[in-house]
Amino acid sequence: MLDLITPFLVNSAVQAITPILLAALAGTLCGRVGVFNMALEGQMLVGAFAAVVGSYATGSALGGIVCAMLATVLFSTILAYGVTIFRGDAVVICVGMNLLASGLTAYLLRQMFGVSGTFSDPAIVGLDKIRIAAISAWPVIGWIFSRQTAITWAAWILTALVTIMMFRTPLGLRLRGVGEDAEAATSMGVDVTRYRIVTVLAAGAIVGLAGAQLSLGTVSIFSEDMSAGRGWIAVVAVMLGRNHPLWAALACVLFGFADAFSIRLQGQGLPNQVTDIVPYLVTLAALVLTHGRRRRRQDPTITASP
Amino acid sequence: MSDAARAPSRLPRLPAAPMAILVGVVLGGLLVLVSGGNPFTAYWAIVTGSLSWSSLPNTLNWAVPLVGMTLVAAIPLRGGMINLGGDGQMVVGGLVAALVPLYLPGPGWLLILCAILAAMIAAGLYATLAAWGETRHGIPMLISSLLLSYPAIGFASFVVGFPLRDTTTGLAQTPMIPEAARLPVLSGPLNAGILIMAAVAVIVVLYDRFTVGGYELRMRGLNARFAGYGGVPLARQMTAVMFASGAIAGLVGSLIVLGSQFRFQDGALLSPGYTWSGLMAALLAGGEPLAAILAGAFFAALQTGGFAMQRETAIPRVLTMVMQAIIILFLAIRHGIGRQGGAR
């Protein structure tokens, strides 16, 4: 059992965690201002597509990242304005956004590049794997951080920054106030609507990074629905973490290791249909364990009113 | 919050859906225009490809699973709950429906009956797991129902990929079920499944309109806490609703397996995306069963028309998916589907 945990496993787990961690961070931010963001899956897909388009068009990975962030922010306006100005139901809007992202990227893939399914082209420039000689020599840190993309580094740095911002700054205090009691925040002179819009859009930029990592991080391709449930895992991480970035990150780490572990199990001769289930079972188990003792009280039940 | 919550309800409800459809059509047309196509030829291809006399059976055949999955979403939605696990429940039903006639002896009609019933029960029970997670462990059903889909799909994929695989073909699928256990053909692609689905649809509508249970479910949808104080056993109701919803998903799976594919193929039930389209249709109708059935049929026509459009105009059929999403988004944003906002 223990010999399954190798430097390679750790390294691939960190890779697998990156997009989920970024998306979960975005979901945490939205959750803090009282917007339940269930559209992470679709946002990530839009980001992944725009990253490939940008990289293809500009010939640089950075161009891809910028495109991904811009496109995802633009896409997030639906959620940002939909729940604030238009007062739509977040769950319904997010379900619509996920479907829109899936349909729109598939449509544009065919119309722009004339392919369906998967698009790969030598003109798509992937992200560089950063190799820092001093770090890769260290035993544990080296396994984790050698040959990772800049986005992976950014993900962890952002997690730290968001945590500090949220709990150590006046901005974070107002942000939390908006989510906890919008009326009280209003009476304190905080423009709740503007806080929500800006937060959701900023979160969109972060999910754009997640998308760029997905399509340019390891393989440099775009394929239809390539987010493949990662956005939903991020939603679960947000719930497990109860809108706290560090706990959400921990949930992502758990999932990433389960994922990397399941790939290792495949190497041991188990069919991939079985090992693919492992991360979801781990997630379900974690949900049962963390929610089990606290019961329902603290969670606003998520419903959609007809 | 209260002003905002009340304001939209003064707007007349009726024009909302047609307006949303209009917006979807216009924006979809613009998308076609921008990407260098002709929206009018595209839409004409959708209309003739779905509603002309020769394509109508195809549309109806597509409508059976889609209307079914619309009911799967609409029943919980009526009570303010969302079942996102339709994919997994449909797969459980489809797998069970394929295995019963393969491994049980008996006359064909009995096998069909057993297969459908077993599929419904299995899928219904699987769906209640999500309800149990919420009532016992406080895990939001929205998430657990979705997460539970993945193990079901993975398990089914494993079963037909390894132990119960048809080794004479190269694909991950079960052997063909015997001829006698297939649903009788009515005409062309249409089989008896449409009659079964129609009967279920009628039962759901009647239950919703004329029974205490239907009334209690609507009460829950309007205000769950009030319904609880009024004596509705909320936990038991959630379990029952999820069982019914999952059972219909299982029925859809079994009708596809027994009526058109005659075997369980890995991934074949899921690739058309019935679950999400069904959820969209149910949302379009605000969970009201009769309207949901109509919305499901509308989306089915849109999608079969999409195939014709792709054949005739080189415009990809995913355009119809984009239109569905736009319709829902417009409806959610313009008229606030969830305007009671009971959640927060």
TrEMBL record, chain A:
Cell membrane in keyword set: yes
InterPro entries found in the cross-reference section: ABC_transp_permease
Residues spanning the membrane: 12-31, 38-57, 63-83, 90-109, 129-146, 153-171, 197-219, 231-257, 277-292
Membrane disposition: Multi-pass membrane protein
Keyword vocabulary terms for this entry: Cell membrane, Membrane, Sugar transport, Transmembrane, Transmembrane helix, Transport
Keyword check for Protein transport: no
Protein name: Simple sugar transport system permease protein
Organism (species): Kaistia geumhonensis
Domain of life: Bacteria
Automatic annotation (TrEMBL), chain B:
Pfam families for this protein: BPD_transp_2
Topology in the lipid bilayer: Multi-pass membrane protein
Keyword Ion transport: no
Subcellular location(s) of the protein: Cell membrane
Residues that span the membrane, as ranges: 21-47, 59-77, 84-104, 110-132, 139-162, 192-210, 240-259, 279-302, 314-333
PANTHER family on file: ABC TRANSPORTER, PERMEASE PROTEIN (PTHR47089), GUANOSINE ABC TRANSPORTER PERMEASE PROTEIN NUPP (PTHR47089:SF1)
Name under which the protein is recorded: Simple sugar transport system permease protein
The organism of origin for this protein: Kaistia geumhonensis
